[in-house]
Structures are given as structure tokens and as C-alpha cells.
Amino acid sequence: MAYPIPLVAAGAGEPWPPELVRAPTARSRRLADMCGIVGYVGRAADGKALDVVLEGLARLEYRGYDSAGVALLDGDHVETRKKSGKLANLRADIEAHPLPASATGIGHTRWATHGGPTDENAHPHRGGEDGRLALIHNGIIENFHALKGELLASGVRFTSETDTEVVAHLLAAAYDEVGDLTEAMRGVVSGLAGAFTLLAIHADQPGVVVGARRNSPLVVGLGDGATYLGSDVAAFIGHTRRALELGQDQIVTITPEGATITDFDGTPAQGRAYEVTWDAAAAEKGGYATFMEKEIHDQPHAVRDTLLGRTDSDGRLVLDELRISEEQLRSIERIVVVACGTAAYAGMTAKYAIEHWTRIPVEVALAHEFRYSDPVVGARTLVVSISQSGETMDTLMAVKHARELGAMTISVCNTHGSTIPRESDAVLYTHAGPEIAVASTKAFLAQITACYVLGLYLAQLRGGSYADDAQSVMKELGEVPDKIEALLGRMDRVHEIARFMADTRSVLFLGRHVGYPVAMEGALKLKELAYIHAEGFAAGELKHGPIALIEPGQPVFVVVPSPTSEHGLHGKVVSNIQEIRARGARTLVIAEDGDDDVVPFADEVIRIPATAPLLAPLLAVVPLQVFALWLSTAKGLDVDQPRNLAKSVTVE
Ligand code: F6R
User: Which candidate, 202, 317, 213, places its Cα nearest to that of 261?
Assistant: First the structure.
């Protein structure tokens, strides 16, 4: 039987005509929820569940924001409330119609592509005839169609179009048989295919939340007389910093006293305990109007903290976190960087530096392309994945594939306890702190910094002409945070330009060498934040086609390399500016302090502090981030939660 996926016509907001609605294919079914999940159990009468869950959802809203819901245990029954739209809608509804005080609750904030963002499809979903069970879910149940067919045939009625509701009914039926939620969860997960985090409560088991995870994030927070679950630690950071990392294919049962963990087969397991090093204030806006603005201003810290502790008293690089032997690292013949979006641009930037310092060939592949391209990698290939969240499914799949092919894998990651570092041979953490705004800013700078540290470490390890330069480059890198600080202090003109340009329909970005990924990152920021057509090009490529786009008044940002760059690169980009200016482009030129060659050809010069050419991206990207932030603001758009996006892309 064909099971229709309700599709929504882009822009029109109207459903497609029925004849165009099709049965799901394996591919379309992969599209599902990428969501934020919270669970809480406190002592019997603590009455805090609703507040804790709503606070957690507010901190996780960046993961998805097209509907939200909560379920609370109230005496001998379960209360649920769910609303389409942002969390504010749910809050307003609860304010108008208050929910009972409770000590046990779960909550969910959703990013949907499958089963539209309606009240009905919002989580939690109820299971069983009497709705005594409530369930929330992040991920995809790939075999939901077959399971649903069986449930429909046995007379179960569905109230939503989600795959999640199937699990709610299965779990309720299993509970009726075994009388224990943990046992029931164990019985059900073995029959599910796909990636999922599930949290459930049952009216007959107050003081208990049961969770399960496979290829989808879930962490435990340990408080005093209260225990928490969250998609990441932000969910409970306002209450405790003591966290437990769960392994793959595990079930966790939380009570006010703590957490019990087993594998899916019932074998007892231990979570890895760790202390979260940042506090609740780091996940707040700190006086800025948006998280993005705050995170742009966090960038000096992000770079500084990522550099901390990387050298010994002799100034030699030490990477304690790397669990790959020096001998293995010396044997590397090739590096492949796998990442997506902004993280991939960090990888492209790092390629220039790592190749220059180590002479090891570096290839940068979009993770989703790498995974399905029959890649040529083996025991002497080092696959470096870059991911802020550590949960991006495309990147995770690329890493797993690389390991299957025998490659060494290192994860450059910002999130402790996340899946990609766990699935890699080694990890190099960036220390940018929590990044909440959906558009990545400080993580980008931290990723470039960490990759540079890795490149310098490899250069030092393998000897060669740049081995001795590692210390001087580290010193220059150490000066970058102060330069970013100074640069942020002179962004007023960029702010003004963004306001003037609020009606602009298209912006182009040009760069060469390390300025090329910066140009692409500038374009990406503008697309995702201001919904403006934007393209980043290698400036040398202009005359091979894109120059045809230049017409009078077309705004073009040009990232100019330092006059100290090798091979006369600076002069070549100055010529590129002249070429587009001659055709009427409005040129917005990002150039080093003191670079006067650009002045005659620039409508605007945006100055950045001088630094070594390879380090310039850490500065040149900042005005582009600021420009996108203020243009989006000038258009009245939601800077932190742009349309159609979510922070962690946990589906392929
Ligand atoms: C853009 C942006 C995305 C992410 C990409 C990878 O502003 O944030 O392009 O960079 O989705 O995400 P992570 O780094 O979490 O793997």
C-alpha cells in the first residue's frame, strides 16, 4: 500500500495536488526529523519538570524549530501539549492553559521534512489505546512503512504522519506485555532500522524516563536528586555539569538517583563520565541581541582556547589527544579532509597550509560526495573529518567508510561526547565553546586553527624544511586573537554598508589561494542568513565565465591577499579588481592595513590587520560574517534561526 508523504509546495504553502503526492522511496524516507530532545526526572514532589524541560528546549531550539512539545507525568496519567511553530507558541499555549506540576517529563523541538510541521505531527506521540505512553524521537525509522502496515492491519489508529508514532504504538504494546518500560524499549529497538534517539515515559512508571540511541546523540546529566537527558549538554547545563556519554546501541533508564545503562541486548554498560567545561553563561547571549553576534565576538577566545596547551616548555608542539602513533603519522602518504558546508571551507583553507608545511598531498571532499564516490584510500591515508557538532550524518558516514577502507581517521570537532570523535581513531578538539546560532562563525575560525596546529605537528614530526618553522608560525597564530579583537572594534562601516545594501538581490565574492574558501564562506553566510543570491569564485576563474555576471552596480567583495604573498598573487588580484571595476562592478575590497595599491579601484576598502598570508583567512572572513549578520538584521530576518535550516544535520 502506498503511504503518502504530505509534501508542501515550496513558497506557496499549499499542498501539492494529490496526483503528485507519491509513495516514499528509500531516499525520501531518509529525510526525517533532526531535533532537540530533553528528559527530566526529579524527586517525587519537586514539580520542576515543566520548567526544566522548557528551559532545555530553549537551549536546544537551534537544532530544529518548526514545532515543539512536552509530556509530563501527572498522578496516574500522562499530559501532553504540542504546537507547530517556534517554542514561543508552545509557551504561550501553556501559559493560557497551564499544565500540572510534575517531577517527570520529556520535551522535543523538531525540524521536519517528513510529516509537515503541524500540531499533529509534533512530538510527543502517544501510544496505546489509552495514550498512557508518550514518546519523542530524533532520527529516522527506516522500516516504519512496513511496521505501520502491520499496525494498521491489527486495527491501530494513527493520528499523525510521522514514523515516530509507529514506535509509540509498538512500545505501548510491548509495555502491556512485560510491564516495564526498559524491558519494553529493549524489545522494540531490536526491530527498528535506521538512526534514532528515543525517550519515553509511561503513566504506570512515575519517576522514570527511558532512552535509547543508535547513530543519533543522547547524553545524561547527573544532578543531586535529579537526572537529565539531552541531545547535547546544553539541555541541562543550567543545572549540572556532570555528564555521562552513552555508547552506540544503548538504553538508559533515568531516575532521580541516577542512570542505568545497558546495551540493546541487556548487557550492563558504563557511560563515560566527564565534566562539562563551559557553563550556562556560555550558552546565553551575554548582552548581544543574537547568538550569532555574540559568537562573532567570541572568536578571539575560540582561536586562543584552541591554541592553548599545544606546546611544551621547549615550544615544541604536543598533541596529547591524538591516539595515533607517531610512527603511523610519519607513514602518511596522503590526507583527505571530509566535511560539509562551512567546515569544508575550513578544510579547503587548511589544505593550502598543510600542503605547504608538510608536502603531503591534501584533498578536500564534501563528506556526502566522498562516501558514495568509491574513494581511493588505504592504510597510508589520513582522513581528517571536520565537524562543529560531531553529529553531521554525512560526515559520520564518510568517517565510518574511511575506517572500513583501512584509513587512519582524525576528527577535528567542537563537541565533547559527540559521535564523530567516538567513531574516529583520534580527535583534536576545537575549543570554541557552544555554538548556538545556526550559521557557523567561531567554529570556522577554531577549525582552521586546529587544522593548522595539526599541519604544523605533522611537519615537526616528519622533519623537512618547515619543521623548524612550526614554532614561529605558532607564535604568529598566537597573535591572531588580539588582531581579531582589534578588527571587531572597527566594523562600524561594514554595519553601515550592510544597511545600505538591504535591498540588494545578488552579491559576488572573489578570492584567490586561501582567500578563495573565504570568498565561498562569505557567500554561504549571505545565502543562509539574508536569503540573497550569492556566489564565491576563485578570482582567476572570472575570465573563464563568471565575469559575464558583472553589470553596472553589481556588488562584489574581493578578498585581497597580503602584499607579502608569494608568486605575485597580490598584484594579480589587484588586476582582477580593475577588470570588474571596468565593467561597472561596485567593489568592496578587503585588504591588509597599509595596502594602498587597492585604493584607486575600490568603492569601499575594509581594512584587516596585517598577518602572515596563510593566517589571513582568520581575519578576512570576519567582515564577511559581520556583513551577513547586519544585512539579515536590516531585512528583519531571524539571524539565529534562518529558514529551512537546523544546526545539526543528523540525516543523510
Ligand atoms: C553554515 C553551517 C553549515 C555547517 C555544516 C557542517 O553556516 O553552519 O554549513 O558548517 O552543516 O556542520 P558540522 O560542522 O556540525 O558538521
Answer: 213
543 catalytic per annotation: no
Distance between CA atoms of residues 581 and 182, nearest Å: 68
Pocket test for ligand 1, best of 232, 369, 389, 391 (most atoms within 8 A of CB): 389
Angle at 39 between CA 35 and CA 43, to 5 degrees: 170
Closest CA to 408 of 369, 389, 380, 443: 380
Nearest partner of 478 among 308, 295, 299, judged by Cα? 308
In 3D space, the residue among 201, 250, 207, 202 whose CA is nearest the CA of residue 226 turns out to be 207
Catalytic residue chosen out of the listed positions 83, 294, 527, 647: 647
Digit-coded pLDDT (tens) for 107-164: 999 877 567 889 999 999 999 878 999 999 998 888 988 999 999 999 999 999 999 9
Is 7 contained in some domain?
Answer: no
Residue 331 domain-assigned (yes or no): yes
For the whole model, what pTM was predicted?
Answer: 0.79
Domain limits at 627?
A: 492-634
Q: Tell me how far the alpha carbon of residue 648 lies from the centroid of ligand 1, in angstroms.
A: 7
What DSSP assignment string belongs to 233-274? GGGTTTT--EEEE--SSEEEEEETTEEEEEETTS-EE-PEEE
Are 478 and 528 in a shared domain?
no
Whole-angstrom CA distances from 605 to 422, 531, 610 are 45, 25, 14
Report pLDDT digits (tens) over 249-292: 999 999 999 999 999 999 999 988 999 887 777 777 877 889 99
CA–CA dist 474, 466 (Å, integer): 12
35 is annotated as an active-site residue? yes
444 Cα: distance to centroid of ligand 1 (angstroms): 9
Give the Å distance between the CA of 262 and the centre of ligand 1.
32
Do 272 and 337 lie in a common domain? no
What CA–CA distance (Å, rounded) separates 3 from 22?
Answer: 8
Domain count, the chain: 3
Cell 582582477, residue located? 576
Pair 426, 455 in one domain: yes
List ligand 1's pocket residues with C-beta within 6 A: 340-343, 387-389, 392, 395, 439-440, 524, 528, 648-649
Quick one: which atom of ligand 1 is closest to the CA of 388? 14
Distance, CA 516 to ligand 1 centroid (Å)? 18
